[in-house]
Design brief:
Blueprint (H helix, E strand, L loop, with lengths): L2 E6 L5 H9 L15 E8 L2 H9 L4 E3 L1 E8 L13 H9 L3 E7 L15 H30 L3 H18 L11 H7 L9 E7 L8 H12 L3 E5 L1 H9 L3 H10 L7 H11 L2 E7 L3 E8 L4 H8 L1 H5 L1 E8 H7 L2 H6 L4 E3 L9 E7 L2
Parallel strand pairs: 1-4, 1-5, 3-9, 5-6, 6-7
Antiparallel strand pairs: 2-4, 8-9, 10-11, 10-12
Helix pairs in contact: 1-8, 4-5, 5-6
Bound molecules: guanosine-5'-triphosphate and magnesium ion.
Length: 360
Amino acid sequence: MERLGIVGLPNCGKSGLFRALTRMDVEVASHPFTTTGSNVGVAQVPDTRLDVLGELAASRKIVPAGLNVIDIAGLAAGASQGEGLGNRFLAQIREVDAILYVLRAFDDPNVVYATSPPDPLGDLEVLETELCLSDLETLESRLPKARKAATQDEAKRLVAALEAAVVVLEAGVPLYRSDIDSATRARLRDQFLLTDKTVLYVVNIGEEQLGDAAGIEGAVREHVGDADVTALCFALEDEIAQLDDAAARTELLAGYDIGEPALPRVARAAYHALGKRTFFTTGEKESRAWTIRVGDTAPVAAGVIHSDFERGFIRAEVVAYEDLVAAGGWDDAKRQGKTRLEGRDYVVRDGDVIEFRFNV
Ligand SMILES: Nc1nc2c(ncn2[C@@H]2O[C@H](COP(=O)(O)OP(=O)(O)OP(=O)(O)O)[C@@H](O)[C@H]2O)c(=O)[nH]1
Ligand SMILES: [Mg+2]
């Protein structure tokens, strides 16, 4: 399953974010390089549609989708040359499918930091520079061999793609923000470059900056283009996430004058950016969100639940979430002829509610 890696400078708040996302008990401390290995966990991906389904079916249990998250050791300037935790850090990034950059905006003299006052765009430059340098090193070590082998057209095109990447990276532009065309980008995929991944950004703001969140977010967004950017106060989100009592949560949110916690939105954005989509099953026992990828067919979706479902797949009985809700529940949707039977070739859509028919 795809993994989201949390990447940022030492003491920017990565582990606090990881703890809030996964509810795992990891060390969050005011000294840099607190995290030296990596913490691995699963973040729940909240989905209001699932809550509605659970209510309609009076389900005894609600099971949201999950997202694998890794809290990676802090990166210091010079990491690509072995500074800080150096290559260990870069190796950890290589293994993730998407990067969640954490940029620090909160100011606290008790939590030492590389820059003072904090400078989120400055953080970004340090982080991206290290990743670009590491990719350049990778490419430069591979190019001579690729050039030597380039007797066929396809091999020549690969060399051209590697050279195009070098030009972009030398200008300090990560591949995910470059204007390299998609065919060239596709040729680079097998190189597993660090800046060829999906990226999202979060800015860790202090409680006193909550009023400024939109402005801080906007400044980063202007710099990064299409990617998802969220400014949030990790410490506060962590506190909210720990409250099981809904009333206490609402009270805390109101106290800080924020309508909705931002963390669920970050989890959803990452899930989506990784190409993950959701279908649901619903009933009295449980309502559950299952993860598929864009383009997955009905038997593949069935296989997410159980491999026997995929092997013995006969048909899927499907209704779109909106139609099910409009009908008032699964049984009513069925009575009203809103559910339909789909076969092996059906491409499952985000929000489909499904009952599988299968042979065992
Ligand atoms: N004042 C203040 N402190 C914060 C805020 N967010 C995080 N911190 C503190 O920042 C410190 C570092 O947080 P961590 O989550 O351990 O940071 P990290 O990025 O994982 O650090 P390393 O693992 O050392 O790279 C902790 O003492 C947090 O309590 C904030 O919004 N305001
Ligand atoms: Mg940490």
